[in-house]
Design brief:
The complex is a heterodimer of chains A (469) and B (246). With 469 residues, chain A is mainly beta. Chain A is built from 5 helices and 31 strands. In chain A, strands 2, 3, 4, 5, 6 and 7 form a 6-stranded mixed β-sheet that branches. A 4-stranded antiparallel β-sheet of chain A has the order 10-9-8-31, with no helix packed on it. In chain A, strands 11-12-13-14 form a 4-stranded antiparallel β-sheet, with no helix packed on it. In chain A, strand 20 and strand 21 form a beta hairpin. In chain A, helix 3 packs across helix 5. The longest helix of chain A has 24 residues. Chain A is globular, with a radius of gyration of 31 Å. Chain B starts with a helix and ends in a 5-residue tail after the last strand. Chain B has 246 residues and is an alpha+beta fold. In chain B, a hairpin with a 5-residue loop joins strand 3 and strand 4. In chain B, the strands form 2 sheets. Chain B has a 3-stranded antiparallel β-sheet with strand order 4-3-5. A two-stranded parallel ribbon of chain B has the order 1-2. Chain B contains 7 helices and 5 strands; from the N terminus they run αβαααβαββααβ. The chains are: A mainly beta (469), B alpha+beta (246). The interface between A and B is large, with 30 and 46 residues.
Chain lengths: 469, 246
């Protein structure tokens, strides 16, 4: 009996041991990376199927967007609007409608001619109602006042035809910043439906012009991208020109004729303090920030010869980048900070040149006829905008090597182009032929959508700041 | 004196000639302006289907087709019309066998029918054991295929809009999808490939593909002839383009 149990014990012990022995030789699997393959059934077996071509010869059609008033879960008082959160929701929808209407891609219908959705409908829209109104896209949103006084704004974009939610996002803003929530929502819709980077939540610096032609008062002013929150920064005792926002919005570079000579000042928006960029008796013009905000490019005339210099933004020694008897002016950095495009008359007329950031390797890029002035490198890096002077002044773009020139505007005098932060819209100022009045205009890169930006007074030298965080 | 008068007439004539020339120039100028308005040709759709196919093709392909078989004529023409009705077996039976055409011969004797329409058995092939009478071919015909393709394109087009932007007319998206017999989508349409993407339109490329898929989704269910289901159940490389006229 004992021997039997011993045998049984041995067997039970040997059985798994034999299994282990077998296992030892066989590898469990190597730890190498797993090859990935396209999870597409058609790749596995090439099936033959029918094919067709469908084209879209129609003119560019605007996308119809319905933007009813933003709903609120319960009516509460808010400093942002005396009518409470419900009225604020309607106001936000109005701001979004105005933003989208003004760039030629959309056909928005605002909250004033649409029914007000209830709060639960924000996440579950009544598609039947909206498809009957001919809207392709639907924007819903809500406003909620928190106990700490801040506002929560949610924004949803729906495809009415597909009955599908395309994108949604929410923001917490202070009551004073409620317009920024509307701009953020506009940006969300714009970038989702066009593929472009956003640009509505940004600010614009420009020169406000008042007074008669011979005694024109030119003041530095800033405003939101839609013209709201307008502010004058200088009093107008000294003429101001060519403002440029710093990449972090904390400062503005501009040109001031305080003592009759053009000098470059840095205006600190927080403190209102102004500092001279270079302590120098020579006239300095055409200031530009480097993309990281650490350096400033400017042009200085020394003994009748104008060249481009670079100086650290905190002050310091200037470095001369061009060394040419001609007038070299208006350098603009490429977004990676490695190249500079500038304007020079060394060939006899104003043309655009590109050089490395240290001033070496200068070569002309504009050969397309006409003159090339005030070049600006796109924030996306693929294009250079400039003022093309061929009879009239027009805004044009070309590739960074000077090819593929396209004239975007047909005004009498359109000049000083600057880029929107997404590199797809160009801002410039247009002077009317007879009255001499000037205003800020915007045109997109296709040249098809042009619009005037409303300003309280005449405006010139617009400069777009980057998208706000 | 006479000379002077003549000169006056000459002056008048000269003046009239000048005025008329001026008028002529003005008329010509106006016409020149008018003719600058160029007339654009109207766009039309052209389908290129080959007239002669190198492969056997038919609108509705069958593997094989029955041979045409004529009945045997009787010696005496019979008047009875009811006898002209052949038995159903007569259509299956005509196998070339040692005892040829028993039933048709009988029928012919009974009725003596000579009217070819009734018991002349149609066929476009050489097979004797199938009831299929359509032309034998291995593939659906080019013209039928082309019209199915056009029907698909026609139904997708109203839903297809290319995104706006710089150089987006260079973007082309090829889409694959499968269909159920009722014309509805089997699964989600997929992007097979995309071409024409460059630095300027890269931002729109994803939107272009998304809109192409959206167009197919909105166009479904498709209204297509069900008897050709084999031809349209698989759609490969449907080409979405802003414009083919470039």
């Amino acid at each position: 009996m004992k021997s039997v149990s011993l045998v049984a014990l041995l067997l039970t012990a040997a059985w798994p041991a034999a299994l282990f022995a077998q296992d030892l030789g066989a590898p469990v699997g190597d730890d190498g990376p797993v090859e990935t393959t396209a999870p597409d059934a058609s790749q596995v077996k090439e099936e033959e199927g029918i094919s067709f071509t469908v084209t879209d010869e129609s003119a560019w059609s605007d996308i119809g967007i319905a933007i009813p008033a933003f709903a609120t879960d319960r009516e509460r008082a808010t400093p942002a609007n005396e009518g409470g959160t419900g009225a604020l929701g309607r106001e936000i929808a109005r701001v979004i409608t105005a933003n989208l209407r003004n760039n030629g891609l959309f056909k928005p219908v605002g909250p004033d001619s649409l029914p007000q959705p209830a709060f639960p409908q924000i996440t579950a829209p009544a598609y039947g109602t909206w498809s009957g109104k001919g809207a392709e896209m639907l924007v819903h949103g809500y406003v909620r006042a928190r106990d700490d006084g801040k506002l929560v704004v949610g924004c949803y974009l729906y495809d009415v035809a597909l009955q599908d939610q395309l994108v949604r996002e929410g923001w917490v803003v202070g009551p004073a910043d409620w317009r920024r929530a509307a701009h953020k929502c506009s940006d969300l819709i714009f970038s989702r439906l066009t593929g472009e980077s956003p640009f509505f939540d940004s600010r614009i610096a420009y020169i406000a012009e008042t007074g008669p032609k011979d005694r024109r008062v030119k003041r530095l002013a800033v405003m939101d991208s839609d013209g709201a929150n307008h502010r004058f920064l200088t009093l107008g005792s000294a003429t101001a020109l060519t403002p440029r926002y710093s990449p972090d919005y904390s400062k503005i570079l501009y040109l001031s004729y305080v003592d009759g000579n053009p000098r470059i000042y840095v205006y600190d928006i927080g403190t209102g303090k102004q500092t001279l960029v270079t302590e120098n008796r020579n006239p300095t013009i055409a200031p530009r920030w480097s993309p990281d905000g650490k350096a400033i490019l400017y042009s200085m005339a020394v003994a009748g010869n104008t060249d481009i210099y670079r100086v650290p933004a905190t002050g310091g020694q200037s470095v001369r980048l061009t060394n040419n008897p001609g007038i070299d002016v208006g350098g603009s950095f490429s977004p990676d900070g490695r190249k500079i495009v500038f304007e020079s008359d060394r060939s006899g007329s104003q043309q655009c040149y590109v050089m490395d950031a240290d001033g070496s390797n200068q070569k002309r890029i504009s050969f397309a006829g006409g003159r090339c002035a005030t070049p600006e490198w796109s924030p996306r890096g693929d294009q250079i905008a400039f003022t093309r002077i061929a009879g009239d002044f027009n805004v044009a773009v070309m590739s960074t090597s000077g090819g593929n020139l396209r004239v975007l505007t047909k005004g009498w005098q359109d000049e000083a182009p600057t880029w929107a932060p997404n590199g797809r819209i160009i801002q410039f100022f247009r002077t009317e032929k007879n009255t001499g009045r000037s205003g800020i205009w915007q045109v997109d890169l296709t040249g098809q959508n042009e619009r005037r930006l409303p300003t309280p007074v005449d405006a010139s030298d617009p400069a777009w700041g980057p998208i706000r965080p | 004196m006479a000379e002077l008068a003549f000169r006056n007439e000459e002056k008048v004539g000269l003046l009239a000639a000048l005025v008329l020339h001026g008028a002529l120039v003005a008329v010509l100028l106006m016409q020149a302006v008018r003719s600058e308005v160029s007339v654009f040709p109207e766009r039309m759709t052209v389908s290129l289907a080959t007239e002669v196919g190198l492969e056997a093709a038919s609108p509705d392909p069958v593997a094989e087709s029955r041979a045409a078989i004529a009945p045997t004529l009787a010696d005496d023409p019979a008047p009875a019309p009811e006898a002209a009705q052949p038995e159903p077996a007569a259509r299956v039976a005509p196998v070339p066998s040692p005892k040829p055409a028993v039933t048709p011969a009988k029928a012919a004797k009974k009725g003596g029918g000579s009217r070819i329409g009734d018991d002349f058995l149609e066929g476009k092939g050489a097979s004797t054991d199938t009831a299929e009478t359509r032309a034998p071919a291995s593939q659906i015909g080019a013209s039928a295929k082309a019209s199915i393709g056009q029907a698909l394109a026609r139904q997708v087009k109203p839903h297809w809009t290319a995104p706006q932007g710089l150089d987006v007319d260079q973007l082309v998206t090829l889409v694959d999808f499968d269909l159920n017999p009722d014309g509805s989508l089997k699964g989600r349409p997929r992007v097979r490939s995309q071409s024409g993407v460059n630095d300027s339109n890269r931002a729109q490329a994803a939107r272009h593909a998304e809109n192409a898929i959206r167009a197919v989704q909105l166009a479904a269910p498709f209204d297509l002839p069900e008897e050709y289901y084999e031809a349209w159940k698989i759609v490969r490389g449907a080409r979405f383009d802003r414009n083919t006229s470039r």
